[in-house]
Design a protein that fits this description.
Helix 4 runs parallel beside helix 5 and helix 8 packs across helix 11. The chain has eleven helices and ten strands. The relative contact order is 0.13. The radius of gyration is 21 Å and the shape is elongated. By secondary structure, the protein is α/β, with parallel strands linked by helices.
Length: 259
């Protein structure tokens, strides 16, 4: 792609979904782009473009150098991209015709996107968009047109090393993630999670539970603390991605809503 050790300026257009879980799935791709072609002495500069407010985890993780919020404007976006002069642009928005056009006129030598009608006019490299696989892997497929991406375990090991909180040491740990981005109707419910935890505890006395929660699940905390399992639970509330990653890595089993 470029000479080894060359520091690249990379622009990434995030997928147009506001759910926190969907946002997190960008992190392995962003980690790859941060390290892509760089050496141990420096990382690439990654600028993330988003049409909505993103979780602070992106900047806190150190994977993103800057977040640019934008509105629909072909002329403004084209001018911005040409003034930034990025080496690489990666778009996760194949259905946005105006954005495809702006990227095509950006002057960036490497422009990665998914195949769509007319995409070869706007992008230097395209791949089919596979919606049948894990979304994070679908994002990483964009990089395969130039060089193999770092494996997913590399990203998870990277985040775990940066963790500041050590999870509770249970003999057997089960991590529970009861949240759901679209709202309560998408969730299994905290009572069901506690019933499951109680059944597992009866099966094996040495089991402890880590609950990973966010602000939307704040009302779950008193319910957990009032349950007979409270002494066997470690609650992670609004923890960093790094701390959550280490907690999940320490678990023998993770149970979560699929959304």
């Amino acid at each position: 792609m470029t000479a080894p050790g060359t520091r690249l300026k990379v622009v990434v257009f995030a997928q147009n979904r506001a759910f926190f879980g969907t946002q997190l799935l960008h992190l392995p791709l962003l980690h790859n782009l941060k390290k892509w072609g760089s050496d141990d002495s420096h990382d690439n500069t990654v600028i993330l473009f988003s049409p909505f407010k993103l979780n602070s985890a992106f900047v806190q993780s150190g994977i993103v150098d800057h977040i640019e919020y934008y509105q629909t404007s072909l002329i403004r976006m084209t001018r911005m991209l040409r003034s930034l002069r990025p080496d690489v642009i990666v778009s996760l928005r194949p259905q946005s015709s105006w954005l495809n056009l702006a990227i095509g006129m950006s002057g960036a030598p490497i422009r990665l996107g998914y195949q769509s009608p007319g995409s070869h006019f706007f992008y230097s490299h395209t791949v089919p968009r596979n919606t049948q696989i894990y979304r994070g892997l679908n994002y990483l497929n964009l990089l395969k047109t130039l060089q193999p991406p770092l494996p997913l375990p590399d990203f998870f090991l990277h985040t775990q090393r940066r963790a500041e909180r050590q999870p509770e040491q249970f003999t057997t740990t089960i991590c529970l993630l009861p949240g759901g981005g679209a709202g309560e109707f998408k969730r299994w419910g905290i009572e069901n999670y506690l019933q499951l935890a109680h059944a597992l505890k009866q099966h094996r006395e040495d089991i402890g539970f880590i609950f990973i929660l966010g602000s939307d699940e704040a009302d779950y905390v008193p319910v957990i603390n009032a349950s007979p399992l409270a002494l066997h639970c470690d609650i992670y509330m609004n923890e960093s991605v790094e701390n959550c990653s280490r907690a999940m890595a320490s678990a023998h089993l993770c149970i979560a809503n699929d959304c």
